[in-house]
């Protein structure tokens, strides 16, 4: 996907319908002097929080130093009552895991406070094919956190920024000792798009995974909070159904 559609309001600039386009450049979230140009974008995610719409996306580029194909996470924001999209920033590379060359399928949740986000991201080495036998190739799930600047204040100057530590590990207890048997799966990553918060409380994060027999499926992570008490759903989709999205339907039912 080289762009995403914004729904113009009466006061918005209708010329700015394309949020991301090839050759866009973004500054790195942790090093503003590092500016990277991207040739394409895919797996967009849109969330709304506290008067601001945030668009998050995979951003693809070729590293000029070693010619590796790399993937970053980029984000822009716009006030929900109209206007222009911000210039945005990117997590050009994972500053805390040097084995990761690609950050894939950002799947975003809005936190309870309504001004912070967290996204499940698949961290991969340059030669790793997602949802396949890894062998000695590298994969690690990661979290990418951001916030709306001045989100707690009634001000016109609101825009999304990545937090000072832009990436981190997934919740320790989930990764190291999940009671719902994480070992059912060899690998998992987000479905792309956004997670949701059910009316009765739990967060639902769509993911895709590869089982021990090599079957690719979709399922959800259920979370009491955005950063803890995560567990896999017991059931999965039929084999081969991947890249899921979720909607709350009715009477506590989900549509995936």
UniProtKB/TrEMBL annotation:
The organism's taxonomic lineage, starting at the top = Eukaryota, Discoba, Euglenozoa, Kinetoplastea, Metakinetoplastina
Q: Where is the Sialidase domain?
A: 43-256
Q: Please give the CDD domains that the UniProt record associates with this protein.
A: Sialidase_non-viral
The membrane-spanning stretches of this chain are none
Name by which UniProt lists this protein: Trans-sialidase, putative
Q: Which InterPro entries match?
A: Sialidase, Sialidase_sf
What the entry lists under Gene3D superfamilies is as follows: 2.120.10.10
